[in-house]
Amino acid sequence: MDEQAFHEAILSLETRAQETKAPETWRSLSDQVTEDFYRAWPQIRGWGEWLWQLIDGERGERSSPEKDPELDETGEGRGGQGS
């Protein structure tokens, strides 16, 4: 995979989405580009959602709290014994 080309494609699509509304973009597309988008988008969307879920899952695992009860700390805090 050409990572640079993928990065540029994502940034280009993001920029387009930020700068124009979907109806405006649709009106500006040629018939051929409209047809290509219509044909390709379901596969691209499905693949992109799958990729996003993989990345989100990995990030979620890294940021999840440790689930080892022996590592849990409990403190008395304010108002506890010894205050």
Shape: elongated
- Percent helix, as a range, is 55-70%
Low-confidence stretches: none
Strand count, sense and barrel status of the largest sheet are: none
Mean pLDDT: 87
The portion of residues forming beta strands comes to under 5%
Rg measurement, Å: 24 Å
Structure characterization notes:
This protein is mainly α. It has a domain of 31 residues. The longest helix is centred in the middle third of the chain and has 33 residues. The model has no long low-confidence stretch (mean pLDDT 87).
Structure at a glance:
With 83 residues, the chain is an all-alpha fold. The protein is built from 3 helices and no strands.
What keyword list fits this structure?
83 residues, mainly alpha, 0% strand
Task: Map the helices and strands.
Elements: H1 3-19, H2 22-28, H3 31-63
